[in-house]
C-alpha cells in the first residue's frame, strides 16, 4: 500500500478555538476520588500534551464544553482527540471527569444528578486488583492501567480526526467488515462527526480510502507488501531541518494495521482529516508559530476515485 505522497506548498484554513484557561494544573494522571474539573488540566510527563475541557469559538451560550487532548506546548489550541464529540456538556459548575474503582472514565454533567454524557466501555478490571489509574502519555495517548501495569483502555483505540505517531489504523480479523477510521469534524467549531472518514478498506487492506459518507472519493495505490517505508518531508524550504516519517504495515493473526513514527528531534507532526475532506500532513513551526501543511491528499484529480470512469486510465 503506497501511502499518499502529496505535494508541499499547499494552503489550509486554520481553525481557531478558544480554551477555558485552567486555574490550576495537575500531574499526568487521574485516580479514583480525585476528579478533573473545568478549572484544571492533566499534563503529560514531558509536557507535550494536555487533557482538559475546551469550548469551540463559535459555541452558543451557554458554552458547549468538550473533553479533549491537545498539544500543551503549542500556543494555538490544536486538539488531537475529543471524548464527547456527540454529547457536549453545558454545566461548568457540576461538570467533572472521574475514574471509578471499576476502571471506567465517566464524564458527568448536571445539577448534581451525575448525568453521564460520556464514559468508557468494555473495560475489564482484573479481579482482586488495586484501584486503577488513568495516565496521559507524552505521545498523546490517554491510558487506563491496572495496578500491575496492564492497559485496560486507551484513547488511541478510539481515534477522532487525528492520526498521531504510535497510533494504529487497523482492521481486526475477528471483526469482519470493520476498520478503524478517522472521522472529520462536522465544521470549524463543531467536533461532532462529519461527512468524511479515512482508513483501511474493510473488504481488503491492500489500500486506504477517503470516504464522503459511504462514497469513496479517493484511494491510495495498493500495498506492495513492504513492511517499513520512510518518507521525507521538509519542514520549510529555507532550512536544512527535515522530518522523516517512518510508515509501517504490521500483519498478525488478529489484525493488520498502519502505524508511523518520526525521526529524532522532529517537531510535532500529525495527519489530520479536515471537515472539508482533505487529509493533511501538518508540522508545527516554532519560528512562525503556525502549522505548516507539508502535503495533502487527494492532490491531482486523477487520484480521485472513479475520475476517469470504469476501467479508465488517467
Automatic annotation (TrEMBL):
GO molecular function, one term: protein serine/threonine kinase activity
Signal peptide: 1-26
Domain of life: Eukaryota
Substrates-to-products reaction catalysed: L-threonyl-[protein] + ATP = O-phospho-L-threonyl-[protein] + ADP + H(+); L-seryl-[protein] + ATP = O-phospho-L-seryl-[protein] + ADP + H(+)
Positions in coiled-coil regions: none
EC number: 2.7.11.1
Subcellular location: Membrane
PROSITE patterns linked: BULB_LECTIN
Main location: membrane
Record-annotated Bulb-type lectin domain positions: 27-157
GO biological process: recognition of pollen; response to other organism
Pfam families: B_lectin, S_locus_glycop
Name of the molecule in the record: non-specific serine/threonine protein kinase
Amino acid at each position: 500500500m503506497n501511502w499518499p505522497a502529496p505535494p508541499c506548498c499547499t494552503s489550509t484554513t486554520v481553525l481557531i478555538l478558544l480554551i477555558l484557561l485552567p486555574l490550576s494544573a495537575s500531574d499526568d494522571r487521574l485516580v479514583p476520588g480525585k476528579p478533573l474539573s473545568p478549572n484544571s488540566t492533566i499534563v503529560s510527563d514531558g509536557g507535550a500534551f494536555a487533557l482538559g475541557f475546551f469550548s469551540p469559538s463559535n459555541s452558543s451560550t451557554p458554552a458547549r464544553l468538550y473533553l479533549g487532548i491537545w498539544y500543551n506546548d503549542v500556543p494555538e489550541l490544536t486538539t488531537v482527540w475529543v471524548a464527547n464529540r456527540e454529547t457536549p456538556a453545558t454545566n461548568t459548575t457540576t461538570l467533572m471527569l472521574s475514574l471509578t474503582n471499576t476502571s471506567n472514565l465517566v464524564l458527568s454533567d448536571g445539577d448534581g444528578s451525575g448525568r453521564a454524557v460520556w464514559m468508557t466501555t468494555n473495560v475489564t478490571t482484573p479481579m482482586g486488583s488495586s484501584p486503577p489509574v488513568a495516565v496521559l502519555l507524552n505521545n498523546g495517548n490517554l491510558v487506563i492501567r491496572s495496578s500491575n501495569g496492564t492497559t485496560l483502555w486507551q484513547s488511541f483505540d478510539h481515534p477522532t480526526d487525528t492520526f498521531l505517531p504510535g497510533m494504529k489504523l487497523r482492521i481486526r480479523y475477528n471483526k469482519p467488515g470493520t476498520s478503524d477510521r478517522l472521522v472529520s469534524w462536522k465544521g470549524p467549531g463543531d467536533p461532532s462527526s462529519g461527512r468524511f472518514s479515512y482508513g483501511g478498506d474493510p473488504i481488503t487492506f491492500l489500500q486506504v480510502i477517503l470516504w464522503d459518507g459511504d462514497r469513496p472519493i479517493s484511494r491510495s495505490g495498493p500495498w506492495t507488501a513492504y513492511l517499513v517505508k520512510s518518507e521525507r518531508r521538509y519542514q520549510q524550504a529555507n532550512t536544512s531541518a527535515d522530518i522523516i516519517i517512518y510508515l509501517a504495515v504490521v500483519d498478525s493473526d488478529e489484525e493488520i494495521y498502519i502505524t508511523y513514527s518520526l525521526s529524532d528531534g522532529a517537531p510535532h507532526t500529525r495527519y489530520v482529516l479536515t471537515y472539508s475532506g482533505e487529509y493533511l500532513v501538518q508540522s508545527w513551526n516554532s519560528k512562525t508559530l503556525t502549522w505548516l501543511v507539508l502535503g495533502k491528499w487527494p492532490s491531482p484529480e486523477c487520484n480521485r476515485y472513479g475520475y476517469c470512469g470504469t476501467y479508465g486510465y488517467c
